[in-house]
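Extended Data, panel c. Modelled sequence:
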Amino acid sequence: MITQLGVIMFVEVFGGSKSQKYHTKRMVEFCAKMLMPRLHNLDITVNLTKPKGAMGYCLELDDKRTFELEIDRTQSLRQLLETIAHEMVHVKQYARRELNPNKEVWMGKTYNPEKTSYWDLPWEIEAHGREVGLFIRYCEQHNLAKQKWTQIP
């Protein structure tokens, strides 16, 4: 459990290597602090696995404070952390009720994902738009910017 700037959070990470677990936990905590500094009592479980069909998923569980992320552990460490940042933007969207997890409703407007391209869905635009910036800021804060794995090949 961590307590930072009013965020009380419980983060569990399952699967993956020791390095993946270490950075995953720190990235989740960093993103929560950056995206939701005033939200309390977040409970986030991260499963580093091999999901089918995507690099990662975000599921809201019982209430708007309990989440499960499923992240593809076969990605490079940089891509894995960018995927976590992407999914943490979805955590923020669900927790703040910007995105309704049961319907495709964003900020009160309904979208049909069958008629709207994935890339044009507003919740995906925000998540893709913020993932790299969150990764870069994480690396800067943790003095990782010069590490070879943080660079684009």
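The domain at 2-140 is CATH 3.40.390 (Collagenase (Catalytic Domain)). This feature is highlighted in the accompanying rendering.
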